[in-house]
Amino acid sequence: MASEYIGYRRLYGSRGCALAGRESYELTFPAGETRVELYLGPKPHLGVMVQSGDKYFVYGEQSVLTQARYDKDAINVPEAGRFFTEIRCSLPIDVADDLSARFRNKDSAAQAALLTEAEKHRPRFAQVADLVAGIVGLRFHRQLVLELRDENPYVERGPGDTPANFASSAVEMLDGITIREEGIAAMGALLNAVGQAPAEALEPAATIMRWLVLAWEERNSVAKFLSLFIPLECVLAGVGGNPAKEKARAERFAKLSSLVDLHGGAGKAELAELVRTLARNARPSLNERFEQLARAAQLPSCEADIVAFRRFNDIRNKLLHEGRKDVRLVLGSKGSASDPEQGLEDLVERYVSWALFQDTSVYPSHWRHGPGRLKW
After folding, report:
1. Which tens digits make up the pLDDT trace of 304-338?
2. Contact, 212 vs 231, CB < 8 A?
3. For residues 252 and 132, which has the higher predicted lDDT (pLDDT)?
4. How far apart are CA 117 and CA 111, in angstroms?
5. Per-residue pLDDT tens over the stretch 29-75
6. Nearest residue to 4 (alpha-carbon basis) of 89, 94, 90, 88
7. Which residues of 157-193 are buried (b: 16+ CB within 10 A; e: fewer)?
8. CA-based, 20 to 30 A from 189: which of 45, 103, 142, 298?
9. Distances (CA, A) of 328 to 316, 318, 325
């Protein structure tokens, strides 16, 4: 067996940064079994990719497709003179002698195989890179890690020869939208009706819509997930739980109060106050409240929506309470009857629309409906 180094590079644009009295700084240190190499300066080891182009592409419209230029020596790219923070994490793996020999001879298939192995280790490497970037930003300055430029799995072949995977920014394909005259009329009627709503209805609705608009333009998956979940949580704040479960919960607290009253002893007053506090704070869970919302809306997808929300809420809890950032915006497998595809964005749009307007239609069918009333 032979040994080859695989790795992962994180490159940050360090706006406004420089080193006093030197051009660059390099440090190599271990983090467990991972070798970490930190570089601060204008010439990161794996170079820089400069990209330009539109974020969106619309059929029938002239758009500037993404263009990318990669240069191993960053001094040659248009952003020469800028400062970068490069974090490389790597470790040796055992590979077959034949694979190693072909890789050393620059065989493209062997190189692709090792890059695939590097990609498999991305979560492990990314965890170390998160730690290093966070320490650099927290203890020195956030501008050093202000702008994430690239994330690249790579393999080491020798000095100055480090094959890496580079990917351009995503371009979203948009539909061509034409609003008919009846749609224009519906828009005017709806907005005029909303404008007549009392302030106590408009303010919470505006909060919901602000987060929804932020979610639509957000590209970071974690930020998009949270920006989508927040408006649904705002809706659920006004939803109660299952009446039968609420009644049973109240009865249990009543029994607990009776037991305290009968057997509380010298600490009866304090225990009674504790029970009252617990009763006040014993709200139905988000899952229970969404189930009530879904059953009130009575959409054909009600049961599937309830299951999907529970799964999305589990992701939310792990993100907020455990710091896990492996979020998913779409669940299930497309075309699978046993596990149908469910998107968080679609789920949120449908139930926000129903909660505010008692109307589950969203674009494009929205333009075929008359104005709804702002219910919130």
Report:
1. 999 999 999 999 999 988 888 788 898 876 555 56
2. yes
3. 132
4. 10
5. 999 999 999 999 999 998 887 766 566 666 666 665 556 676 777 77
6. 94
7. beeeebbbeeeeeeeeeeeeeeeeeebeebeeebeee
8. 298
9. 10, 12, 9
